[in-house]
Amino acid sequence: MKSSPGVSMHWFRKGLRLRDNPALLQALELAGGKGGVYPVYILDGDCYQLLHSSALRANFLVECLADLDKNLRERGSRLYVASGDPVEVLPELWTKFGITHMTHEGDETGEPYAKERDAKVRALAKEKDVDVRVCNSETLFPLGSGYVSKVGNNFEKVPGTMSAFQVVFGKMGQVPDAKPAPKADEFPSDQDHSKYDGDMMPPRSPMDMPWPRNVPKKEVTPLWGPKDCKNLTPIVRGGESEALAVLRQTTKRPAYVASFEKPKTSCTSTSGASTTALSPYMSMGCLSPRTVWHALTEASERAPASVPKSKPPVSLHGQLLWRDFNNLIAHATNVRNPGTWGLMEGNHYCRHIPWGDDDALLEAWKKGETGYPWIDACMAQLRTEGWIHHLGRHAVACFLTRGDLWQSWEKGQLHFEEELLDADYALNGFNWLWLSCSGFFYQYFRCYSPVAFQKKNDKNGEYIRKWLPQLKKLPGKYIYEPWKAPAGVLKDAGIALGKDYPEPIVDHQVSKQNMEKMSFAYDLHKEKQAELATAAKKSSGTKRKGGTQKKSPGKKKKAT
To answer: pLDDT at position 271, please?
Structure first.
């Protein structure tokens, strides 16, 4: 490895923050205060953050990069933004800036594109004599050298349930402290950025984002234009500064933090999120999990003794444990069979279920035109704000898959990737496996009713009235089931079913048939697992027998 001082580059990818960014701090250390430090972000149309991205989600990234640039400029530095394939762009920038060292946050999930990209970059760096350093700070503890190491590097022992994960987590020790953001005097004082004024500036609009490189534009999903970038109303705005502000607002309520139980939060709120709304910042790396962990701990300690303290997995700390657990499962899946996380085929944790393939049903679900107001209202909020309460996500996912439409969870996963501000490779895949009863959760007979479940939480349907204004004049008696309203009631509400609002695309009674399909699929899975176990046992027995013959050929001859 080269000694410092040198000219270092920090390649921002997902960790779009200054606070608790070990890789950025290492870039500064390698420069020794005398070399140069170039913070770089590459707009890559093939990366997870942009490959399938709505205008709303792309705009969130724009805001994150603008805030990152602002925070760097306050310290006498700036963000350099390029566009293209990092495998081609980075070597050009190494030459342009005279780079000797490069740092970046690691991606331990094994996401296929990131894994291939990083391997190519490392090989090129070796050729160009650029020393690459990687820091893992995306989770509370590293996945490979942390959790997997704790189970003896045996992937058969990687915990497959939250309770088992909590046992492993309990053996990890104290969560490391979050590192402070670097101060201005930690950046090279004599580095002149003025010669690049106006060059490599951050994007100002989603329209500045590149499209995927190897997909014809007409086949890109979702496809959007300038009109889609106007009057955007996300649940939160992007950037580390906004993230820290939301975190501060959360921790100003010690009793709320200490007693938080996620299942008890409201899924009917019409005035912002009833939860912390920190997830978009976590997915983009504007906040590190360690920063959040310690902020929650400090707030909980300030709560009055009379406040009942919640515990993982339902507490706020528990949400961070779920996040690490999901990342670990994605990591383990891709180590076992590379690139299979987020897929049904080849995924160690996924049961094979013969889902249907009906584009009309899928499109109706995506557009919020199923004829079931609660489902459609959730999809309208997703499209408008890039977010839905977790119970809303549960309902729409169940409706698409095992509940009503019998469509593949992979297609639902892709749509959430496109629309959610908090879209995350590991978490999105895990949640869809769980909610479709394809993995981790197997009580398929527990099915969300698209009518009854929400009716008990929001009897008058205020949430529906907000997101489906065409139904706002319907009496509460019919707001969840407009097809049951008498013609006169519909007329008074100004609704013509099939015109102003669709008829139901499926009868919810089909869920009973779908439960039978799930039962059959589960039985087939058990049979296949039994066959595999028998085959493995026979194979093991054959190997042992062969091994004995090799070790003692004389005994075999004598016996003959």
So the answer is: 82
User: In sequence order, what are the beta bridge partners of 41?
Assistant: 12, 81
- Tokens linked to 19: 């606070």
CA separation, residue 532 to residues 54, 90, 337, 478, 538 (Å): 42, 46, 17, 51, 10
As beta bridge partners, residue 40 has 11, 80
Whether the per-residue pLDDT at 128 is higher than 60: the answer is yes
d(CA 42, CA 226): 22
Whether the CB-CB separation of 439 and 352 falls below 8 Å is answered with no
Could you tell me the CA-to-CA distances from 276 to 50, 260, 423, 464 in Å, in that order? 25, 10, 16, 22
How long, in residues, is the chain? 560
User: Tell me, what's the pLDDT at 2?
Assistant: 58
**pLDDT, tens digit, 9 for 90 and up, residues 344-353:** 999 999 999 9
Minimal CA–CA distance to 54: which of 308, 385, 315? 385
Question: Can you give the pLDDT at residue 270?
Answer: 83
In angstroms, the CA 50 to CA 53 distance is 5
Model confidence pLDDT, tens digit, residues 524-533: 999 988 888 8
Residues 473, 385: Cα–Cα separation, whole Å? 24
pTM exceeds 0.85: yes
* Number of neighbours of residue 513 by Cβ within 10 angstroms: 10
User: DSSP letter at 210?
Assistant: P
Q: Is the pLDDT of residue 121 over 90?
A: yes
In angstroms, the first-to-last Cα distance of the chain is 62
Maximum C-alpha span of the chain: 98
What HEC string does 231-248 produce?
Answer: CCCCCCCCCHHHHHHHHH
Beta pairing class for 131-135 and 101-105 = parallel
- The single-letter code of the amino acid at 115 is K
